[in-house]
Amino acid sequence: MLLIFPPLAKPCEPPAGIARLAGAVQTAGKYCTIVDANIEGISFLLAKDHTPEDTWSRRAVRGLEHNLCNLRDPERYSTISRYQRAVADINRVLEQVGKTHGITLNLANYQDPKLSPLSSDDLLQAAATPENNVFYPWFRHRLEQLIAENNPAMIGFSLNFLSQALTCFAMIGFVKKHMPDLPIVAGGGLITSWMRNPAWRNPFAGLIDHLIAGPGEEQLVALLDLQGAADYLPDYQQLARHNYMAPGFILPYAASSGCYWNKCSFCPETAEGNPYTVLPPDQVLADLAQLKTQTTPALIHFLDNALSPKLMTALAQQPPGAPWYGFARACRQLADPAFCRRLKKSGCVMLKLGLESGDQGVLDGMDKGIDLALVSRVLDALKEAEIATYVYLLFGTPSESLDEAGKTLSFIVDHHEAVTFLNLAIFNMPVCSSEAGQLAIHNFYEGDLSLYCDFVHPRGWDRKKIRTFLDREFKRHPAITPIIHRDPPIFTSNHAPFFAEKNTTAGIPL
Domains in the chain, ordered, with CATH? Predict the structure, then answer.
């Protein structure tokens, strides 16, 4: 079995999906080769001969190796300005490669003005003309080599992000053209979202032999005619050799899939009907102990939509032996300063909090299940424990207007010393959301595979007004501007824990 994670995604940590799949397949008795084509492909493009025409690009090319070393040096995460320059210069080299191919390319995105990842016709076109893809000179030889060396019974692609879709289909098209008898299976987050849409009609028959929605371990094992095992460990040993763009190996680990709250309206997890499954805390701790000896992680990244209170208690009682971070709901447990101090001692350097709004009416309208008084206590307790926070805000939900957005601004200002990083997003309506039927909607993006739709806001709070508010009021507030400026560019929350770890108080200027 050959499993591939295609370009392009942030190249800072290994892909968790194919590591879990490989662990399941190998425990069932079949060897599995896993390939992070993302880090390999990006490294190939960066290593090409470059002939820059402008001063910035020439400087970026000259300093490329030095800047890559800086991103892998923990000491460089003491000062945000040096980090920002290193990221900007590496990104500049990729941008110039993209320009020569007429595409938008950077460390986190791939966009082709002629082809859309939201159009099945365009994806099929990418598969029919793989030689037009910027990664083709690399993946042509790499795929031929991998297939010749491994003679796989099946080849799988893990497609999670829109930025991967065009290259993923180009790679699939190459395999289908040159090895038509080799079965192809595709799964991952993006495939799951497409297939969970009630309007889904498979447009890829004849190109992809098997499509898998949701966690794919059991389905893949069954496709290979193997007997699945109840317990298996993700395989990161094949991926640990890569020089990811981070100051040490980041170990991604999912203790659950879905969300234990699973009630928030307009949430894709709810809209897609993704069930909640969770591993027992004892198994999580045992897995991490084994994985720690195999990979020596500099950071553990919990991928859960929300860490369960039981798991956080277990981590506080039995630390995983490496710094860690992940998403958590604002719960009574986190409002306890003593518990937060125990979390800090266990290695917790940062928690991501999906606050969404600083107005209680908006939160209630979304069925978030949290109250702002509790959030205030949580932020205070985390600040006291010196655990950094990465707070997510969502503007433009149907129950919000300028007045409610102003309350969100006030809430963040009041708690700015406890908010280390901020993520600001404008609400998109999931196409399969039940609430979409209650509003006047229209196409947001062209293409039959679009995941979101636009809508006429019932209170006139449209996207243009939201952007104006964010740019002219929210981001310019003197208490909020420093928070915005300290966010690591491109890598954002993936690299933020390293700054939190180097700078031990949650509100310090970076």
Answer: 2-223 (no CATH), 250-427+458-502 (3.20.20.70)
